Structure formats: C-alpha cells, structure tokens
C-alpha cells in the first residue's frame, strides 16, 4: 500500500498534522489492504479519504470506501491468540480512538478517527 501511505503522508504534511502520524499511516495501510483483499471485486478499486474536522481541526478521519459486501469485525482470539486473519482490524481498533463501518451502495465504508493536537 505504498500509494495509499504516500497520499496520507502528503495530506498530513499539508495539514501540519504532527501527532499520531505513524498510527494514522499504519491504519491507512491496514484498511487499504483489507479493501483490496476482501472488499474489491476483480477490476475495481477503492477510495481513500482523509478528513480533518472539529472546531480546531483536531479530529482526523480516515475512510476507505469499497464495493464489497460483508461487515468487517475484529475476530475473537482463540486461546488468547488471534487467528491467521484479523490482525489488521485489531491494530486499527487498538490505535484509533474510534472505528466503524458505514453503508455505501454498493459496498461499505470502513473508517477510523484520531484526536490530533492542533498545529
């Protein structure tokens, strides 16, 4: 996901976001990878959006739009260890302040949010 990370890094730099950059970039990479692996039929792509909002722009939202079905969820670990899949969403759930899934026709929007210090 080098293109997705490069896009996100460019936006964060342009917006002068300094806090939590590594967390945001890792979540961008995980959500984009999940979209390609599970949410995009052959020949289709996904849309990555970054939005800053709040009174001081103090919340950064990452959205990945895809046209696949299903609702992603963090899998329950078995015997204290996660299985082969699901580690990406586990990372997103741990690093982001919030995350979730929204409706889109066709498909879904998987998003996460980060409180960021003002520039």
UniProtKB/TrEMBL annotation:
<keyword id="KW-0547">Nucleotide-binding</keyword>
<keyword id="KW-0723">Serine/threonine-protein kinase</keyword>
<feature type="domain" description="Histidine kinase/HSP90-like ATPase">
    <location>
        <begin position="3"/>
        <end position="111"/>
    </location>
</feature>
<dbReference type="InterPro" id="IPR050267">
    <property type="entry name" value="Anti-sigma-factor_SerPK"/>
</dbReference>
<protein>
    <submittedName>
        <fullName>ATP-binding protein</fullName>
    </submittedName>
</protein>
<dbReference type="InterPro" id="IPR003594">
    <property type="entry name" value="HATPase_dom"/>
</dbReference>
<dbReference type="GO" id="GO:0005524">
    <property type="term" value="F:ATP binding"/>
</dbReference>
<dbReference type="Pfam" id="PF13581">
    <property type="entry name" value="HATPase_c_2"/>
</dbReference>
<dbReference type="InterPro" id="IPR036890">
    <property type="entry name" value="HATPase_C_sf"/>
</dbReference>
<keyword id="KW-0067">ATP-binding</keyword>
<keyword id="KW-0808">Transferase</keyword>
<keyword id="KW-0418">Kinase</keyword>
